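Dear colleagues,

As part of the handover before I leave the project, I'm documenting each prediction I ran so the next person doesn't have to rerun anything. This entry is a single chain, and its sequence is reproduced below.
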Amino acid sequence: NTYQCKKDIINPDERKQLLSEARNAVYNNYKTNKGTHTGLQVVSANNDVVKKLVNKINPKLKYSGAVFVKFASKDGIFIHIDDHLGRASCITWALYPPLKDFSPVKYYNEDETFNETVYYEEKPLIITTRNNHSCNNESEVDRYTFQLCFYDPIEKLAELDQKGELFK
């Protein structure tokens, strides 16, 4: 379901810039292809820092875009599989709140029985969105992530990271 990256490509100044942009962005409330409303808010990310980071990705990957994802306090998204083909996997960074208060991603089996809880760490986390998962922000503040999204499966990204080839 997830893979913890060996290294990070975002320095502390870039992280601050990304968080500032995430907090000031105008978000869209995400609806599924079936029109179901969710607690997920999303906006494309495309500034100089993002372009610099995208240029550090292995060009063999099928990159689909960068986004900021926001969950309001005490909000979240139900058990689901992402319906966007360009989000087969994502490299995700926890921007805010601090990790001790940052809500995890929960994964479920095909029958939607609980499988595992995955907590974010300092380094980016690669997640699959092709398995049942959910996220609920239990904190008192908005939750922000920065995500680089791919058509490629998580296994390909993890393999490249293990070889030291995910990032240039």
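The longest helix spans residues 12-24. The first strand starts at residue 2 and ends at 4.

All the best with the project,
I.
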